Protein 1
Amino acid sequence: MTETVALQVEGMTCTGCEQRIGTALRRVDGVRDVVADHTSGRVQVRLELATTGPGAVVDRVTQAGYTVRSDGGPEEMKQR
């Protein structure tokens, strides 16, 4: 079963940032697809839920040097 997670990410300023986030997230087991858009600050990630969860996505984006904001904040994403 897959789920698409949409994140609002602060700090993406160019296509290089999109690529950096995309590369970092594709290295997470269970991530099937990543679409990052620096103009809107949005990142959409399709996950294989049996392998990983949204918390791993939030952690990886943070490790890459960006700040994640969602409707309920990063803590809500980690709890899903």
Protein 2
Amino acid sequence: MKSFERITFDPTIMGGMACIRGMRITVSVVLSLVASGMNSKEIIEDYPDLEEEDIKECLRYASMLAKERQIALV
């Protein structure tokens, strides 16, 4: 599995959800903003602690998760 340097998991921050660099900004928030049509510049204007590479890593993380296989147990 690829390592992600900017995505962190800490049970004391946002209940252990995937966050950006230990901040209280979750990967799901960033992905929702991208999905709603915002570009990186707009997202960074709204969340100035974010960097362009944070957004790119969120997309890489989502891509990795989408490649996961689900096997139905019969």
Protein 3
Amino acid sequence: MVLLAHEVSPADQEILSNGGLWAYIYVGAKHMVTGYDHVLFLAGVVFYLKGFRDIVRFITVFTIGHSITLIGATYLGIKVNEHIIDAIIALSVLYKGFENLGGFEKKLKIKSPNLLMMVFIFGLIHGLGLSTRLQSFEVGTTQFLSKIISFNIGVELGQILALIPIVFIISKWQTKKSYDSFYKAANSYLIIAGIGLFIYQIYGYVNAH
């Protein structure tokens, strides 16, 4: 089931236990590629951007944000509830779809917040989610910081792999007459997916207590 894609699997734990730093890179990349909430948010960001330079600038800011909290929170042992942080990440998906459809201007009659700043803030939040996942594994104390950094490198590689088809599809579709309909439908889906993931995580939190 896709909603279980974020869960810690015994297979991944075995890979980390038996492998070296490359194992952490692999699991980090795998987690990002299969992390539906991270990928949906990135798709929402790419929808808004024009040109390769813009994509590099915003994704770099997102990367800096999630690297800070992933490395920092894991190294310092700062833990957050996985359902709560994933619920907030779900809201970031909802936020991006809402913003892309002009929701702030059309529905709230206000100017949307600075996108670069919001991408950085959401990057920090996504990093906490990634840290929560890494701390769910038995990492041990040997090469502790190196393992965290390796996992983070894997996340960056996974992010690139996830972005390639997203950027390709969106850039190709922009040349077609059906792009406006595709844009509205895709971003409406982001809103629906964000709401659905939020409810799912809150349900999980309530049932875990």
